[in-house]
DNA sequence: ATGAAAGCGCTAACAG
DNA sequence: CTGTTAGCGCTTTCAT
């Protein structure tokens, strides 16, 4: 019923091997033969069986993307960039989320679903010390990490420390001296990005001799709601900051909302700056340090592909790739009110 | 090097066939034999080769998700719901975008990448009359559509006409009589949702004898920027609407922004209502008709799975599944100003 | 309940 | 440049 390579071979008057070569564009095939085979294959509406092909060749032609979230902006945007490259390369993209969106729902370890199934793995911002990431790396297959740094595993990131410096410096240059920080969790160690951004912030605090009052720090857990609560906390102090650096745009959105709810005007009463260049940041008039998230995905996928193409013995260290960020100044930041 | 079913068989002192049966939980295997095989397989760290298994059995164990966009809120949220079900079922999820994010970049027809490769297909809101959708449906494999209706193909949607009625009625009940409409494209025919939402709007206009001035209609192309421009157009008329129904939250976000830019206050000067229940809608205090987007994905995936489980001869019509929506009233809507 | 045998549809040497 | 010969690693009758 389903037509196989032998049907094509018979119809074209050649052997299955020749059909295989002709269709895959291999050399050492007479161009007229190739043309005839292609024509016959098209007429017969033949498509190779990926499974047979993979079984025989040992290559799976697929790469897996592992991500903690699918629908959050950063993750879906990275995924989009990844997908464009994978698809252009003619490979299959297996999507695997390790989040448990449904509380209490057990998610199998990703590694077991990867073995013998994909040629390479792309990991989007999994917590560096998570069991799941460790498992994946221990698989020992070609891997590229996005947005995180773990040992010397090939990865693509922004310079998080520098991004934080750009954001904080922008505030300092506007004359602010009490600059708040809204970070992730209180430990600040869940992600490499978190500690690096904090380091960037601290380096500017030192550089400009800004206030380093510990009360200027709050945790927003990288969510909108968390950012709002963090800003609430900052605002209800005796001596609130005149400007706040948020480690992500989403937390900054929450901070903006907190201001509005408190009857304050972002940019006039308190300046807010984020990191991301989130789609909605323009809409909310948020100053931010934009990162090319779609490109992060694209570049990581390309890097993985080239890593896979290379012979396994020579390893020219795909290494760490840094992509640039840039400060986007909007209405949420302005010079400190000299006197109120 | 890689260990196969024969290694397990040898180590367990049984035949490969028995290992196969034991590991897949088939009946007619002595439970002690099964236990031994499982123990040996685990000790040897054996994983079946999906390709060999698929080739031999004829089942691919994968389902494809085809979507025009990956990073837009609606699509990534649906995808997230789909993924949770597919993964729980132990199947592979192949992600395929048919969008050309990179202008001029040719995207191969999806159908050719599906044949002999997946057992079923999930399609997220592709334009009903698109070539790509037609191709996919003609494949004749188990399929479920999300957010669109095409013939009698199994699908999962909200009641778009009803959602539009809820939104428009809410405005009418607040006393508004000049209610604007921001839709997708001028034809309003790209998606089934579009024409149905327009029908719902019109039915309420008729029901409440509201103004049906054609100047109250604008096109926002389902984007934030488009929504803003549409609202601009509506606002610069001699007799602007006092309330506007936007066919999507993202267009509503744009409309809100337009109001703010014009010095108007949403909810006080002009009421705005959207459809979606977008993550940011709460943050922007937007009244909207919420749809359970994550569940749309979940339900469609489950429906597809059960469709695939059934024998092909009896077809009890998986049919059309409607999920309920609900009006969420927030600050962007309020009673019409009786006199200004 | 278990084993033997025959493929699933293709690719990869190896000849020629 | 093309054909032949072996499998890739599993599943599935068919026996036993």
CATH architecture call of the largest domain in chain A:
3-Layer(aba) Sandwich
Strands of chain A, count? 12
Helix content of chain A: 40-55%
User: What amount of the residues of chain A lies in strands?
Assistant: 15-25%
The main β sheet of chain A shows up as: 6 strands, parallel
Strand order of the largest sheet of chain A: 2-1-3-4-5-11
Quaternary state of the chains: homodimer
The named CATH superfamily of the largest domain in chain A: Response regulator
**Named CATH topology of the largest domain in chain A:** Rossmann fold
Radius of gyration of chain A: 26 Å
Number of helices of chain A: 12
Element order, helices and strands of chain A?
HHHHEHEEHEEHEHEHEHEHEHEE
Q: Pairing-aware structural class of the strands and helices of chain A?
A: alpha/beta
How many domains in all of chain A? Answer: 3
Q: Categorize the overall geometry of chain A.
A: elongated
Query: Can you tell me the CATH class of the largest domain in chain A?
Result: Alpha Beta
What is the first-to-last residue Cα distance of chain A? 83 Å
């Amino acid at each position: 019923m389903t037509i196989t390579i032998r049907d094509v071979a018979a119809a074209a008057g050649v052997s299955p091997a020749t059909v295989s070569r002709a269709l895959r564009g291999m050399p050492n095939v007479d161009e007229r033969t190739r043309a005839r085979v292609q024509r016959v294959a098209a007429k017969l509406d033949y498509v190779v069986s990926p499974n047979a092909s993979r079984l025989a060749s040992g290559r799976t032609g697929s790469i897996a993307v592992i991500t903690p979230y699918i629908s959050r902006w950063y993750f879906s945007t990275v995924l989009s960039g990844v997908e464009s490259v994978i698809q252009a390369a003619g490979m299959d993209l297996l999507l695997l989320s390790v989040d448990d969106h449904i509380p209490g729902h057990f998610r199998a370890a990703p590694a077991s679903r990867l073995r013998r199934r994909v040629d390479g793995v792309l990991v989007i911002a999994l917590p560096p010390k998570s069991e799941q990431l460790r498992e994946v790396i221990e698989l020992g297959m070609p891997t590229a990490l996005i947005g995180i740094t773990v040992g010397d595993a090939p990865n693509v990131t922004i310079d998080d420390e520098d991004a934080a410096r750009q954001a904080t410096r922008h505030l300092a240059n506007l004359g602010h001296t009490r600059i708040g920080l809204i970070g992730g969790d209180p430990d600040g160690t869940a992600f490499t990005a978190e500690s690096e951004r904090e380091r960037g912030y601290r380096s500017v605090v030192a550089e400009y001799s800004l206030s380093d009052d510990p009360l200027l720090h709050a945790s927003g857990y990288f969510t909108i709601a968390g950012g709002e609560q963090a800003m609430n906390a900052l605002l209800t102090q005796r001596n609130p900051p005149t400007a706040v650096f948020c480690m992500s745009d989403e937390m900054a959105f929450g901070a903006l909302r907190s201001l509005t709810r408190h009857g304050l005007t972002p940019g006039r009463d308190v300046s807010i700056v984020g990191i991301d260049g989130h789609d909605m940041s323009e809409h909310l008039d948020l100053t931010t340090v934009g990162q090319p998230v779609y490109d992060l995905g694209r570049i990581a996928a390309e890097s993985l592909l080239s890593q896979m193409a290379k012979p396994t013995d020579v390893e020219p260290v795909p290494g760490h790739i840094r992509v640039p960020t840039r400060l986007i100044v909007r209405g949420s930041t302005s010079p400190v009110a000299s006197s109120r």
